[in-house]
Design goal:
The complex is a heterotrimer. Among the domains of chain A are: about 160 residues, Aldehyde Oxidoreductase, domain 4; about 140 residues, Aldehyde oxidase/xanthine dehydrogenase, a/b hammerhead (Aldehyde Oxidoreductase, domain 3, Alpha-Beta Complex); about 210 residues, 2-Layer Sandwich (Aldehyde Oxidoreductase, domain 4). Helices cover about 25% and strands about 25% of the residues of chain A. Chain A is built from 19 helices and 33 strands. In chain A, helix 9 packs across helix 10. Chain B has two domains: about 100 residues, Ubiquitin-like (UB roll), CATH 3.10.20; about 70 residues, [2Fe-2S]-binding domain (DNA polymerase, domain 1), CATH 1.10.150.120. In chain B, helix 4 crosses helix 7 and helix 5 crosses helix 6. A five-stranded mixed beta sheet of chain B has the order 2-1-5-3-4, with helices on both faces. Chain C has a domain of about 100 residues: CO dehydrogenase flavoprotein, C-terminal domain (Enolase-like, domain 1), CATH 3.30.390.50. Chain C has ten helices and twelve strands. In chain C, strand 10 and strand 11 form a beta hairpin. In chain C, helix 8 packs antiparallel against helix 9 and helix 9 crosses helix 10. The chains are: A alpha+beta, B alpha+beta, C alpha+beta. Chains in contact: A-B, A-C, B-C.
Chain lengths: ~800, ~200, ~350
């Protein structure tokens, strides 16, 4: 059992400005995109212009003669081979079969031409340099002929040149021919013709049919639909959207003379990138250093080196120079991940008292050509699965010839929330009651067997408390009116709500997150971790926790993060970073303090047991003596005091640790909108977000995270959509012009209320606040118009179409 | 802040010279820069490029030189050739505002201006508002946590500073309108509004 | 972007010899906000770029002249005048339609860079046209991909138009409503033409959205706003935009008319529509509907109904018909100074 958080919080939970704020806001902070190494080359990627095609021919002769050309690599894993024979212009090689996988040995004979590249120990070698049994990688450029490409943007090869301008010239000088193949980019078309196979993967067609999941019996559900006071039916949908990280994916790679690789990567996972590159280039992870001091947004899409990262590192090893590849905006949107769509036909039944009696949903969505797992709709009916007596759900994954999905901020949850919460309000409309009543009635119950401070033990209570707070802050009682029955006029007022849940536990996995705190003899303190700051103010979290424990000011702590050599950390996903890193830092600081006491106490004739830290000083409680921090640390002499802290989900689950970090939170959001019924333009006026998040580390950054989640949710609701053309298979809006994102003037007033529950320990907050916003806005529009606008985003077109159908007046 | 990259922030780029195709080109560039209009053709303009042309810019009050092809945008000249990092490349199509700099006091999208078009003009980037003394605008962003990943922030800061320079008595609504050409993905607008209120109270 | 040679002449006279007789190899650069996008997307690959930013004098200035007996004064705006200077001009106080339209273009950065000439001569924003890999009609291809494809932002007046782009300029409809004329310099000297005549619907690679010859330069635009002496010139531009910030309009309507002394009857009505057709579209029907009538909500609404006569929307943009009706109605009411019923 760990010592835990201090009872009296001095800095924790207060509003602390982020320590890197001045550097970031004035452009001095160097992001991976900003790294310019001496002699650095610029890379660019050749991609499929077609949604589905086979490469017919490739000729790089002209490209290799283009001014500035410095290198070309085929983007594909390069297995190791053993040299069998190397004579004249012929190389004979054999594979190294993995016996566990029962692989068979393959032999290959390669005629070595200028477009064949042989690498040994990550260096280009000549055929004449090779000996039998040398381990080599062999790239035969013409091998790409025949390769099948599955989406617009599918990576083929990468080039390097002395300037970015020249890299583009080189790309355009490549002569490549394609055989166009049949493709599908529309989910409707996949459903119509499910056996048509245009995507890779094990599924026989383009579809993985869902399995029906039942709670209760089919007969119960039938009875619920038949016997309840009202039923509502609707088909609701959320489109494929893009992460739109402002700093695009990519990295700068540089090899040193000793065969070590340093990358400056825009990543959410320095350790994953390190391991990924080490594996790809057959070097130990300790030989790879991944640096991510600043990072311009990931939202779930940046957990690996990805093809562009591998290509940059590969070009760099061959060219003997640093290489930068950062995607451009179009590449970012079309190839670096997306959030899958979800379209669900829902039937819901309920009674006048607000109880939901039955729910069924038949749902489908597309992740693009791959990435079905992240559709993740197994939670339906969202939040209410425990409260509703009987329901049925089925979810079908439809693959299309578009870039693959990656996790995106609370994967699956915003979609779940829309598909469920729209139905809840439609039911309330049919029942003629306030949807607040339906929500209260069907909340998941408190589990009487669970620990009282745990989510399961108190969730019903927390949600009700949040509903009280949110409705009060939003003026629900005064402002809510039956759907479509607000004040007369062209511009309709509406108010709507939605609720959400999320985990936010410390990161799982076998290896715990590490943090190291070092106290130096001059009193200076350094905290080190490989974890990365995506914009969540993680760097500041580390400083706050260290300062809190050591009685220092936040500015006294030197924080070194975002470098893979500072020990193990997990990728920043699932809102797991703060709940893993804050406790790791807590323990590291406490251990460093203990070490300091142990080393210094004898020199001061004190007993370490009697020493405590107070702001700026160390106090001997027994002998009533005290020393200023620096004075005390000076007694370290030539020594230093170090502490290591480790934390993980497993450690947090150990008895007695539930106050240090835990998880599972709830939140309630209420949106107020004005809808111009003549133009269909929706403007959000006010959004209230009430959020539970355990122990608040930094109130300022925490509120900012929640408001940011709300804003991202607003963008989902009103603006965002990947629009793919059915004829060309190309996305028509891979930009920021027609892929719309709101600006400051599009934003409502946002009221954030954090429920500080220090007894629950630290819980992650990155994802939950973005989950329910879109559903709340959609419900507010329903409240304004009295008709459901079923598909997001709520564009003027969709709003006017719904009005025309439903006749709002 | 102490985990800086240790990269020198030079005025003159090493890469700028690497990028050139040698002294001859650079000299040709200089010649074309200085060629006077002939009497027969008042206002006539000699051709620059397509090879690299000597580019002299005044960035944050400092005169800097590099060689760029005519197609190089101001953004790319600053970032790739002069190591300036206060302007970011995000959309690269004049929409998002992350590349915002001021040219002769007016905000522009540096991604949508040729570097050659900025010759002789006063170019100011976000760095101009930091360093030894933090300007009130970035300070207000820090005070109110109006930044998360921070990639859009320098652009916002430049736009906001320019708005207040143009009208020190601007109302919060007027300042908001001046930020219509900038986009934030993390969603720091609510905190930005707090920063704007703080700045408007101070009168710029 | 393909590389090019760059010229920056300092006079119009020196500019003209640098231009070609055909489109494609030479492009004029003003604010750059359109051209550079096209070059980066390889939709335009000029070998020569001729910058107009070195040209001074009248090209960069606005002036107001009132010759004896002429009312209202004649306003001249150089093609090189920046959008921000139009949006903030005191000279244009009587022309709110122009000021509003200029002030609503994108964000401040674009308005600081973009010019009047650039707004009038820019190319369309069709996402098929702007995609290098789509060989549409305007790039020498055989078909317009928007006809059957993603056309939610395309034209609703499509009859007779093989290419269904919308013209992106929001200043052109205003200037057309004002009866403005354009001064154009070319190899044979200077010519003057109504702004309305600057536009046609392009159908092939060798055409632009405007009617200028490849070797001509738009120098300035002139208008006087019309109406007899002592009449009140009423004008407004109304755009429906999905976003408040930096967005293209879905539709735009410009309504201009005058009230004779103390009268509330609209005379000399002009209605010009933007973002609904391959050109700015003069709506005679809407103008006729409002002519000689009081500008009430009902009459303005009728003008809106008249404006959409003949609209043939595409598969995904029927909603723009409704938007256009509303835009015309609201523009008419704004022009007449009626309190907006759609606010607060």
């Amino acid at each position: 059992m760990a010592e835990g958080w201090p009872k009296k919080r001095r800095i924790l939970g207060t509003k602390v400005k982020r320590i890197d704020g001045p550097a970031k806001s004035t452009g001095f902070a160097k992001y991976s995109y900003d790294i310019n190494r001496k002699g650095m080359l610029q890379g660019a990627v050749l991609r499929s212009p077609y949604p589905h095609a086979k490469i017919k021919s490739l000729d790089t002769t002209a490209a290799r003669k283009t001014p500035g050309f410095k290198g070309l690599v085929i983007i594909a894993p390069m297995p190791l081979w053993l040299v069998v024979k190397a004579e004249g212009d012929t190389l004979e090689i054999k594979s190294i079969p993995n016996k566990k996988k029962k692989e068979k040995e393959i032999r290959r004979t390669v005629k070595v031409t200028p477009t064949v590249t042989i690498l040994r120990a990550n260096k280009i070698v000549k055929l004449a340099d090779l000996k039998v049994d040398d381990q080599v990688q062999v790239e035969v450029e013409q091998d790409v002929v025949g390769r099948e490409l599955f989406f617009v943007g599918d990576e083929i090869l990468a080039v390097a040149a002395d300037t970015e301008e020249h890299a583009k010239d080189v790309l355009r000088a490549i002569k490549i021919e394609y055989q166009e193949l049949a493709f599908v980019v529309s989910i409707e078309e996949v459903l119509k013709n499910p056996d048509k196979k245009t995507t890779p993967g094990p599924q026989p067609g383009n579809i993985t049919p869902g399995k029906e999941f039942f709670k209760g019996q089919a007969a119960d559900l039938e009875a619920a639909f038949k016997n309840s006071d009202a039923t509502a039916e609707g088909t609701y949908g959320v489109p494929v959207i893009s992460h739109q990280c402002l700093e695009t994916h990519g990295l700068v790679a540089e090899w040193d003379a000793e065969g070590g690789l340093t990358v400056w990567a825009s990543t959410q996972a320095t350790i994953n990138v390190m391991n990924g590159l080490a594996g790809r280039f057959n070097i130990p992870p300790t030989k790879v250093r991944c640096i991510t001091h600043y990072m311009g947004g990931g939202f779930g899409s940046k957990f690996a080196p990805y093809p562009e990262g591998f290509a940059a590192a590969d070009l760099a090893r061959r060219a003997g120079a640093a290489v930068k590849i950062m995607l451009d905006r179009e590449e970012e949107i079309t190839t670096a991940g997306n959030r899958p769509s979800a379209i669900g036909s829902v039937k819901i039944a309920g009674n006048k008292d607000g109880s939901i009696t039955g729910f069924s949903i038949d749902c489908h969505g597309t992740p693009g050509f791959t990435g079905g797992a992240t559709v993740n709709l197994g939670l339906l009916p969202y939040i209410y699965a425990d409260g509703i007596p009987t329901f049925k759900r089925i979810h079908t994954v439809a693959y299309t010839n578009a870039g693959g999905a990656r996790a995106m901020r609370a994967p699956g949850h915003p979609q779940n929330c829309v598909l469920t919460e729209f139905a809840v309000d439609d039911l309330a409309g049919k029942l003629g009651i306030d949807p607040l009543i339906v929500r209260r009635k069907n909340l998941p119950p408190n589990n009487p067997k669970a620990d009282k401070i745990s989510w399961a033990g108190r969730r019903n209570t927390v949600y009700n408390e949040q509903l009280d707070l949110a409705t009060k802050l939003a003026g629900w009682k005064e402002k809510w009116h039956p759907p479509g029955k607000g004040k007369a006029g062209t511009v309709k007022h509406g108010i709507g709500m939605a609720i959400h849940t999320w985990g936010g536990f410390a990161a799982g996995g076998a290896t715990p997150n590490e943090c190291h705190v070092i106290i130096n003899k001059d009193g200076s303190v350094t905290a080190e971790s490989s974890t990365q700051d995506l914009g969540t103010a993680q760097r500041t979290v580390t400083a706050i926790v260290t300062a809190e424990i050591l009685g220092l000011q936040v500015s006294d702590v030197v924080v070194k993060i975002g470098e893979s050599q500072y020990g193990y950390s997990t990728g920043s996903g699932g809102s797991t970073t703060c709940p893993a890193q804050a406790p790791a830092t807590l323990l590291a600081a406490q251990n460093a303090r203990n070490e300091l006491f142990k080393k210094v106490a004898p020199k001061l004739n004190a007993d370490p047991k009697d020493l405590v830290i107070e702001p700026g000083k160390v106090v001997d409680t027994k002998n009533k003596k005290e020393w200023a921090w620096k004075e005390f640390c000076a007694r370290l002499g030539m020594d230093e005091a170090k502490g290591k802290g480790e934390w993980s989900l497993a450690i947090s689950n150990e008895p007695g640790n539930e106050n240090i970090s835990s998880g599972q939170v709830g939140g309630v959001q209420i949106a107020e909108v004005l809808v111009d019924s003549e133009t269909g333009v929706v403007r959000a006026k006010h959004i209230v977000a009430v959020q539970d998040c355990g122990l608040v580390v930094n109130k300022l950054a925490c509120e900012s995270q929640v408001a940011g989640g709300v804003i991202m949710g607003l963008n989902y609701a009103l603006f965002e959509e990947n629009i793919l053309d059915k004829v060309t298979g190309r996305q028509v809006n891979p930009d920021m012009e027609f892929y719309k994102l709101g600006g400051l003037g599009d934003m409502p007033k946002i009221t954030v209320h954090m429920m500080d529950m220090p007894e629950r320990g630290v819980i992650g907050i990155g994802e939950p606040p973005t989950i329910s916003t879109a559903a709340a806005i959609g419900n507010a529009v329903f409240n304004a118009l009295g008709v459901r606008v079923p598909f997001l985003p709520l564009t003027p077109k969709r709003v006017l179409d719904a009005i025309a159908k439903g006749g709002a007046k | 802040m102490n985990d800086s990259q240790g990269e020198p922030r030079g005025g003159i780029s090493r890469r700028g010279f690497l990028a050139g195709t040698g002294a001859a080109t650079a000299v040709a560039g200089v010649t074309s820069e200085l060629a006077p209009a002939t009497a027969a053709q008042p206002g006539a303009a000699p051709a620059h490029g397509p090879g690299p042309v000597l580019l002299q810019l005044t960035v944050n009050g400092q005169k800097v030189n590099t060689n760029v092809e005519p197609r190089v945008t101001l953004l790319d000249a600053l970032r790739n050739y002069l190591d300036v990092t206060g302007c970011k490349r995000v959309c690269d199509r004049g929409t998002c505002g992350a590349c915002t700099v001021t040219v002769n006091g007016r905000t522009v999208y540096s991604c949508t201006m040729l570097a050659l078009e900025a010759r002789g003009m006063d170019i100011r980037t976000a760095e101009n508002l930091g360093g030894a003394k933090l300007d009130a605008v970035p300070a207000a962003f820090v005070d109110n946590d109006a930044q998360q990943c921070g990639f859009c922030t320098p652009g916002f800061v430049v736009s906001l500073r320019a708005a207040l320079d143009k009208n020190p008595n601007a109302t919060p609504e007027q300042v908001e309108a001046a930020l219509a050409g900038n986009i934030c993905r993390c969603g720091t607008y609510e905190q930005m509004r707090h920063a704007i209120v703080q700045l408007c109270k101070k009168g710029g | 972007m393909k590389n090019f040679t760059y010229h920056q002449p300092t006079t119009i006279a020196a500019t003209l010899p640098l231009l070609d007789a055909e489109w494609g190899k030479t492009e004029l650069l003003a604010g750059g906000t359109d051209l550079l996008d096209r070059q980066k997307d390889y939709v335009s690959q000029p070998e020569k770029v001729v910058s107009l930013t070195g040209i001074g004098g009248g090209f960069r200035e606005m002036s107001s002249v009132s010759p004896p007996g002429v009312f209202p004064p004649i306003i001249t705006i150089g093609a090189g005048v920046r959008l921000v200077d139009i949006a903030e001009s005191k000279l244009l106080a009587q022309y709110p339609a122009l000021v509003q339209a200029a002030g609503q273009i994108a964000g401040p950065q674009i308005r600081n860079m973009g010019t009047l000439g650039g707004s009038l001569c820019q190319r369309n924003r069709c996402w098929y046209f702007r995609d290098e890999h789509v060989n549409c009609l305007l790039k020498g291809g055989r078909k317009c991909f928007a006809q059957e494809g993603e056309n939610q932002f395309h034209a609703i007046f499509t009859q007779g138009h093989p290419c269904v782009i919308v013209h992106p300029s929001t200043l052109a409809p205003v200037l057309i409503a004002f009866g403005a004329s354009a001064e154009i310099a070319g190899p044979k000297g200077t010519r003057t033409t109504p702004v309305e005549k600057l536009y046609h619907a392009p159908v092939k690679e060798t055409q632009r959205e405007h009617t200028l010859a490849p070797n001509e330069v738009l120098v300035s635009v002139k208008f006087s706003g019309g109406g007899p002496q002592f009449a009140k010139f009423c004008n407004a531009s109304y755009e429906v935009k999905q976003k408040e910030t930096s967005d293209w309009p879905l539709v735009q309507a410009v309504v201009a008319f005058h009230f004779e002394k103390d009268s509330k009857i609209a005379k000399g009505v002009r209605v010009v529509l933007g973002h609904v057709a391959p050109t700015p579209l003069v709506s005679e029907a809407a103008a006729k509907s409002l002519e000689g009538k009081e500008v009430t909500e009902a009459n303005a609404g009728l003008a809106g109904e008249a404006a959409v006569e003949g609209a043939r929307p595409l598969s995904q943009n029927r909603y723009k018909v409704q938007l256009l009706k509303v835009a015309v109605k609201r523009a008419a009411l704004l022009a007449a100074g009626v309190k907006p019923y759609w606010e607060g």
